[in-house]
C-alpha cells in the first residue's frame, strides 16, 4: 500500500482546475496523468527576459518585456500578416506581427489607444523593430506579464507553454513535505535542497543543484529497488540443479561452441548448483549465439528432473525461439511446448496439463506462461529474453512461481555502457558473449545523403530481383509521432507504387494481429520489402533479408542503429546497410554515423555513444528509451549513479528491512518512483 503522505502526489491530473477530457489526452501523451508526473515534468530550458523601458537599449534577438501603447491596426492585405503598430515609453516604434488566425486574438488583446505589457523576442523587419506572436500580452495596462525567467516545457499537440506552466504551478501548491531519504553526510556535502524545495526550484530557473538532487533521488530509488531484489533473492530458496550432462551430450549442433559460450555455460552451471536462486544477465551482441547458451542452461534443469521456461517479449519471437529450440532438441527426447496468449481451448488445456504433470520439460512463450492459471510441476529455471528495457524487477517478480524461486537468466542484446548496466540490472552477475561465432561476414555499412534517394531505390530494385529481401526503416522518434507515422506511410506508398504488392508496412500503431500478419508475410518470403518503424528492433530473424535502408539515420541512437543493423547479416550472403542522412548534420551526428561505418562491436559503440553525447547537454535532456530514467541525464547518471549505489548498499547493510526512520523515508522514495516492487519484496522474504 502506498504511504498516505504520497496520496496527494498520485491524484489524477484531472483533479486540477481546467483539466477536462480535452486536455487529458495531450497530457497522457506526455505521460502526465498524475500530479507527481507534472512535478517531474522538467523544463527543457528557460527563456531569460529583460524588462526594458527604452527599446533602444535592447538588441535584436533578445527576449524582452516592454510596455507599449497601441497606435494603429494594419489589417492584412491579401494573405499578408496582421500588424499592430505600437510605441514604447521612449517613443520607439515596434510592429507586433501576427499570422493567420492569431490576428483575431490580437485585435482583442491590443486595442488601439490602450497600453499593454508585451513579452517576446525582439526581431528586425527591414529597418523596423518587430515582435512576431508575443508570448504574453497583459490584460490591462497595470501589471507586467511573463516571468523574467520562464520555463520551456516539452509539449505535445494540444498543449501550450502557458497551459503546462499553469498546471505545474497548481501542482506545486499541493507539494507535501517529505522526510529526507538522502544520507545526511552526502546531503550536506552536496549542499542539496530538500525535496520539496528542489521540486520548486527546477521549475523556477536553472538550478543545477536542485536538478541533481532530483536525479539522484531517481537513481537512488532504482539502485535501492534492484538491491532489494538481489537481497531478497539471496534469502530465497531455489532448487539446486545438478545436471549429469546426458541430454546436453545428445545435442547435435552443427557447430562448436565459442570460448565465450562455453565459459558462460560454466558460469551458469555454477550458479544453478547453489541453493540461492541464480540472478544472471547474459549479455551478447545480436548474433553472438545466446540461444544455444540458454538451451544448455535449460537442459541442466531438465537433466536434474525439473522444468524450464523461456519468456519472449513478443509472440513472433516466442514462435521463432520455439522453432529453433525444437530443431536443436530433435532426437533428445526432451518435450518442448509453445504457449502464447493466442492459444485457446483444447490446445491450451493440453499444454497446461503437460506443465502440471511434468510431461512438458521446456515451455517457450510470452508473459502468458506466468499467468495465474498456469501451474508447473517443478519450474526451476526461467530464461528472460531481450530484457532490454527496464522493468527487470517486475519481470523477476513475475517469475516467482510456486514455493521455490526459479533460477533466472536474463538475456540482452542491447549493448549498454558499463555504467548503465549497473543502472539497469543492479548487481546481477554478468556473463558476456564477447566473441562472435567464427565466419561472420561484416555488414557493409555506408552513409548516403538523402539526395541520392533515387539511387537507393534503384539498389532495392536490383536487390529484390536476385530474390533477396530488404528492410526499409523509418524513424519513429519525433515529439509529434503523427508526423513520423505520416512520413513512414508516405514512403510505403511511393515504394509500393514502384514495387507493387511485394511491399508491406508495419508500425507500432497497428493492431497486434495486423502487425504479426505483415511480419509473417515478410518472414515467409511472400513480401520482399518490409517498410517499418523501429518495431523490428526486437524481432524477426529473416536470413534472406540482406539489405537494410535506414532513413534519417542521424535521428537514431547508436545503440538503436546497431540493433537495427543486426537484423541483416544473418545468412551466408553478404549484407549491406545504407544509412540515409539528412543534408545538414551536426558534427556529433557526423561522428556517430562514421562510427557505425567503422565498427560492428556493439559494446564499443555503446561506450563511444555515451562519450559523444555525454557532455554538452543543455540542462541534461533526458534520453528517451535509452535508460530506465526519466529525470537523470546521461551526464548525471555517470556522475551520481556510483554514489547512489554505494548509498543504497550501505542502507541495506544497516537496515535491510527498511524499518528505521531512514528506511521509512526510503520506502516513500520507492513509491514515489514507482519502484514499489522493491518494497513488496520486503514483505515476501
Ligand atoms: P543471438 O540470440 O545472440 O542474437 P542466436 O542465438 O540467434 O544469436 O545465434 C545466431 C546464429 O548463430 C544462429 O544461426 C546460431 O545457430 C549461430 N551460432 C550460434 N553459436 C554458434 C557457434 N558457436 N558457431 C557457429 N554458429 C553459431
Ligand atoms: Mg536471440
Give structural notes:
The protein has 685 residues and is an alpha/beta fold. The protein has 4 domains: 1-44 and 161-176, DNA polymerase, domain 1; 46-151, Nucleic acid-binding proteins (OB fold (Dihydrolipoamide Acetyltransferase, E2P), Beta Barrel); 246-433, Rossmann fold, CATH 3.40.50.300; 444-599, P-loop containing nucleotide triphosphate hydrolases (Rossmann fold), CATH 3.40.50. 40% of the residues lie in helices and 17% in strands. It contains 23 helices and 23 strands. The strands form 4 sheets. Strands 2, 3, 4, 5, 6, 7, 8 and 9 form an 8-stranded mixed sheet that branches. Helix 7 crosses helix 21 (634-654), helix 9 packs parallel to helix 10 (290-303) and helix 19 runs antiparallel to helix 20 (602-614). The longest helix has 28 residues, at 208-235. It is globular. The two termini are 17 Å apart. The model is unreliable at 615-625 (pLDDT under 50). It binds adenosine-5'-diphosphate and magnesium ion.
Q: What is the element layout, followed by pairings?
A:
Layout: H1 21-29, H2 35-39, E1 45-48, E2 50-52, E3 63-74, E4 82-87, E5 93-98, H3 102-109, E6 115-121, E7 123-125, E8 128-132, E9 136-137, E10 149-152, H4 161-173, H5 184-190, H6 195-204, H7 208-235, H8 246-250, H9 259-272, E11 279-284, H10 290-303, E12 307-311, H11 315-329, E13 336-339, H12 345-357, E14 362-365, E15 379-384, H13 392-398, E16 407-412, H14 418-425, E17 429-433, E18 444-449, H15 453-465, E19 469-473, H16 481-499, E20 503-506, H17 512-523, E21 529-532, E22 545-550, H18 558-565, E23 576-581, H19 587-598, H20 602-614, H21 634-654, H22 661-672, H23 676-684
Parallel strand pairs: 2-3, 5-8, 11-16, 11-17, 12-14, 12-15, 13-14, 15-16, 18-23, 19-21, 19-22, 20-21, 22-23
Antiparallel strand pairs: 1-10, 3-4, 3-6, 4-5, 6-9, 7-8
The structure holds adenosine-5'-diphosphate and magnesium ion (MG).
The site of magnesium ion has 2 residues, from helix 10.
